[in-house]
Amino acid sequence: MYWDPVVLGLEISDSETMGIWEKERQENFGTSKFSGETQFIKWFYGDNFYLMAAREHRSIKLWSRTYNRISGKATFDMFIETTVASLGAGLLRFNDIGFLAIDIIRYNLTKNQSVKIVEYWETWTELSGNRDELDQNLLDRSEKWIKTINAPTGFVVTFGVYF
């Protein structure tokens, strides 16, 4: 919705339905899904510059992960979710059929986050007597994905059409 000088909006992203990099995602991350939704308000200064505030929900689903070593093997899925509030600035350009927005920077403030791991099988306990190395690997992966999903973003480009 547009009320000069304010725009309220919703952005939705889903790697399965709107993924232009699907082949690359499959090659780099295997069976996975990246999605998110953002509710935002943009306050315009001048013709094109804006400041923004947003609430973002981000989600990563990774299926069929493995951690295989001599001392044990494991198969599991990982589900990472986070909600952040973000502040940013950018540029917006309107034309006859739609718009192009470029968020120059978005600084994130984490509100909540979660990681769920579903294990299907593991042989660490049976082969080596403990699963400490596996548990550490799961913790390291979880922390890496949380850092990735909560990272500040820059140069986010959004295209839209009027309807």
Question: N-to-C SSE series?
Answer: EEHEEEEHHE
Q: What's the story with the biggest beta sheet?
A: 7 strands, antiparallel
What percent of the residues sit in helical stretches (DSSP H or I)?
A: 10-25%
Q: Which band does the percent of strand residues land in?
A: over 45%
Over the alpha carbons, how many angstroms does the gyration radius reach? 20 Å
Question: Strand order within the widest sheet?
Answer: 1-2-3-4-5-6-7
**Low-pLDDT residue intervals, each spanning 5 or more residues:** none
Tally the structural domains: 1
Describe this structure in words.
- The structure is a single chain.
- By secondary structure, the chain is α+β, with helices and mostly antiparallel strands.
- The protein has one domain (2-161).
- It is built from three helices and seven strands, in the order ββαββββααβ.
- The chain has helices at residues 22-29, 124-128, 132-149; strands spanning 2-3, 6-14, 32-45, 49-66, 74-94, 98-122, 153-161.
- A seven-stranded antiparallel beta sheet has the order 1-2-3-4-5-6-7.
- The chain starts with a strand and ends with a strand.
